[in-house]
Fold these 2 entries.
Entry 1:
Amino acid sequence: MGRKAESFHVKVAVRVRPLLKHDKEQREVVSVSSDGGAPSVTVVDPDKAFPGKKQEIDYLRADYVRERAYEFDHVYGPGDDTGRVFREAVRPMVDVVLEGVNVTIFAYGQTGSGKTHTMLGHRGETGVMRLTLAEMFGKAKGACRFLVSFVELYNEEIRDLLLDAPIRAHVDHGGQGGLDLREDPVRGPCIAGVTEVAANEVDEVMSLLAAGNGRRTQESTRANSESSRSHAVLQIAIESSDKVPSRKREGQVVKVKRTSKLSMIDLAGSERAAETRNSGARLQEGARINRSLLALGNVINALRKANGGGPSYVNFRDSKLTRLLKDSLGGNCRTLMLAHVGPSSSSFEETVNTLKYAHR
Ligand code: ADP
Ligand code: MG
């Protein structure tokens, strides 16, 4: 089953994090440029940029490509802080969601590339989630009701990350296993029994998120001892009532309820299972994570094609992630992809993969 796509609004921002002490390889091969021409990210092939002493570069070889540049809507380099990412790329989305349009913001990239740093914040740098909530609560000035939920998708199972939240609007846990995804005729895809917290205080939500993030499933893998292998999904349902002119009685106003949804997703690491050299159960996990990311990429690609006049049916059913976001992608929704890459040559392959994924 698919859905007809009407229009597709997606923006892509790429953030290149600084070199860190723990980067094994200290040669920077990724750079950004945004003055003058279109914002772009340039990646230099380390083998070709830093050839071994004996190795001569054959500039005349037909497949010789030393560097590649990719263009995006926004690019941020190691010197740009999260505040700038928020002001330029994210803030415009807040107005849109308060106007009643569903908005989805993804953090994409390999483990260690800075997704959680951007979304939740780290070491004194405020994250996009907090900045967004502050902006939204400030702008709404009490005129809206906000319902917050925070879940993780792990192995295609939905787990509630606010289970022990002190204040709850609605509690009804569906046993120990994963929560079910249901289709509500009014609200769209819904997670049955998920904890929803009514909130309008930034600090309150952030402490819930910090606690929730601590409950995320983390497994140690060879690629990174703290590899996040789950998708963390923060959803904020916004309910407001608008006064509009009555259609029945002239000169009168009636109240109509308006709802929209903001979804902010810290995706699992995009590295391939094969590259983390896992086996057995973890390989399965890796395959599932990639299935989710692949399904997401396919949906975005299909929406983009449909928008360009191509075939207009989009398959949301391949993963829980795309099913959950069915009413928040495409249609008249807005999507922002915050793609993250590391600067060093050791992550060259993954960086190119990320840029290609984000670029399509
Ligand atoms: P991910 O969530 O993609 O796995 P993290 O956000 O945990 O990656 O980032 C990995 C490490 O890099 C963390 O120690 C984080 O603080 C650091 N880091 C990431 N992005 C930046 C940045 N823009 N500036 C400074 N440090 C960063
Ligand atoms: Mg992370």
Entry 2:
Amino acid sequence: MERSVAAGRRPIQRLDPTTIERIAAGEVVERPASVVKELLENALDAGASAITVRLANGGLDRIEVADNGGGIPPDELELAVERHATSKIAPEGPIELGTTLGFRGEALAAIATVARFTLTSRAAERDAAESIRVDGGTRGARSLAGRAPGTTVEVRDLFYNTPARRKFLRSPAAEQVEIARTVERVYLAHPSVAVELIADGQRLGTYPAAPELADAASRVLGPEFRRGSFRVEGPVPGGRVEGYLGRPALAASSSRSLYLAVNGRAIEARAIQQSVRAAFGDYLPRARFPIGVLHLELGSADVDANVHPTKREVRFARPSEIAEAVRLRVRAGLVAGPQVAELSDAVLAPRSATLPASRSLPPSGDSEAGAVAGSASGRARFQQQTLAGRPPESASPSVAGVRGHPRLVLYGCLQSLYWIAEGDEGLVLVDQHAASERVLFEGLRKDRPVTRQSLVAPVPLRLTGAQEATLAAHGADLHRAGFEVAPFGPGVQAVRTVPSFGGRRAQPGAVVELLDELAAGGRPTQPDGLVERTAASLACHAAIRAGDSVPPAEFARVLDALYALAEPAYSCPHGRPILLQIPRSRLDRWFLRSGP
Ligand code: ADP
Ligand code: MG
């Protein structure tokens, strides 16, 4: 296409007011969900205690938001739909985030510019409602209407006069999802108001007024959230933070289920999201994100909500201090709670659905070691370390319950990997590698060397040039991790010591893998510092491994060390769980047992 400046250039001209209005409207109204958000916020500002949102065709055909708030006096209806007209701040300013969610005076005007719009309102002291229509920015007729006190805004055919915008909308189903999410965001920022969402005549969501934030949160995030969450609260610079976050086992694959609000306004704030994620640190694997709700209450000097037409983002006066304070408060709440992952219904459901109707039972009367699953192939090998005719309580290694950790009595070990123990509430499984790794990681991070043991005969290793270079750089790190490696001959190194735990030794061969991993920068971990990455690599290779057969006394030693950590350890350095609990009550449900 010819785009010659001389041929194609227009002279500079002023845009006409309609075009200006439409461009401005586009900044406020991006999609149906933005209409819903603005109308909900207006209803909240009007002091509504109940709001109903009705949709047709994902909001593309129709959106209606009705509230029982204070209403608009009839002589102000025209002004309400005019741009830059508001009842929320004085005309001359000052502009600050006070007690209202809006004050730019743009939303109704913008929506009315790009849709067929009707505003019906009855102020509390009047006996009738009045209605005003605006079609694509053109004011229409007024009429009287019957209505209880409050306001209804109806928005039909969004973007009918701006086809370019309409083309950018997604499917009605996708727009509806976005609206539902918006309703939940606003509700979680303002849980004292009841909201109802009705789509194409069907009730899609009911959000009752919740006296407690915890109730609202579990309404949106599910009943699992109530049991699996912890409270966050405390001062931040200029105000307070308060809320509930899910324990690591509830983490999600995106940050979408972390709901943030500032002074009752649902916001997006990457810095705060990141500090919440950072507080979970190595409690979560890399691509998992905390879920929950956090409310910040800040003084008007500490936050500016006037920076964005959609008011989605706010600006903090002291952003890094607030983010850091949030991180500390979240961390404190996280480490204060119980530290065992619980097997959730969500985990159980798909499994139990695949179980065959009749499970093969061990031959009756056969209670010998190895008979639990009874297969010669050793498919479900069960090391009978403590059962041999003794009651477990008297003879089995046990660990005392401290600071949220359960008291445990060891029964045995499954597949040389999972320790099986009885806890206060039921069955507890411990990943022997993850537990041992965590203990070593914390020790190495604090520069506590791993106990080592000399090999009777040094084990020679032939290293590549890169591995030699890594050894030269990381020899001291390896040494701290229990591996002493020294030159043995031309081009050959020898492993002289290995980490040892209660009589068990690591494999010298781990050194080669470890060198490769350190050459690649260590193992990713959270927090992601070099010291942590190195410590995570060292710990992983020095730790008890899957398949190692571990003496029962070692179980108690590792668990005692785990429980003694300053911060209770929920997961290994890469975020996999260490302890998993299946409560007696769940076992009962599983076996269709009603009573004890
Ligand atoms: P803003 O909310 O920024 O003031 P809007 O265009 O959203 O601008 O609304 C303009 C004015 O209309 C508001 O200041 C308020 O006085 C009035 N208004 C809008 N919606 C409602 C409602 N649901 N109930 C009562 N008054 C409303
Ligand atoms: Mg508004």
